[in-house]
Structures are given as C-alpha cells and as structure tokens.
Amino acid sequence: MTILDYIAANPGCSGSEIATALNTQTTAINAELRRLWRGGLVIRTNRSTGGRARKTGGRASYHVNPMPFGCSNPLTHMFNQLLKEARA
Description:
This protein is about 50% helix and about 10% strand. With about 90 residues, the protein is mainly alpha-helical. A two-stranded antiparallel ribbon has the order 1-2. Helix 2 crosses helix 3. The model has no long low-confidence stretch (mean pLDDT about 80). InterPro entries: HTH_MarR-typ, WH-like_DNA-bd_sf, WH_DNA-bd_sf. This is Winged helix-turn-helix transcriptional regulator. It comes from Escherichia coli.
C-alpha cells in the first residue's frame, strides 16, 4: 500500500497515523507528504484550526486532491476545461 492509497482510504489522517499503518518512520512519511503536497497530489489542512496556522503547531490532516494535475481550485479547472473546448 502506498501513501496515496492509505490517504484515499482514510481521508483526514495524520502523518503519524500513516507511518504507523505503513510501518515506516514518521520522518520519512512526513518528507514524502511534503513532496506530495508541493506537487499538488494531496491537500493539507490543520485539524484543530480549520486550516489556519497556530503558533503552538497542530496536527495536519491529509486528503487526496480530487482535481487533476494538482489544480486545487474548481473554478480554475472549469475555466481550463471551457478554454480547451473553445480552442478545439
């Protein structure tokens, strides 16, 4: 099972939960989650603050990004689809 498979099956999971489930070190999972987040493949939210940063930290939760190509804005995706159709 890959990290993306686990997140898809358990939306809202944390890095430590993924590490425990995959029997991998938390630091390795967090590095891979950061890479997936930067690539737009996963969406990161802060569990306790609704996505706002806190000085005391907070546990991040992860979800698979449902939009293709790392696009996280549905309006941007719709615009790109309509533009593609207009150019065809």
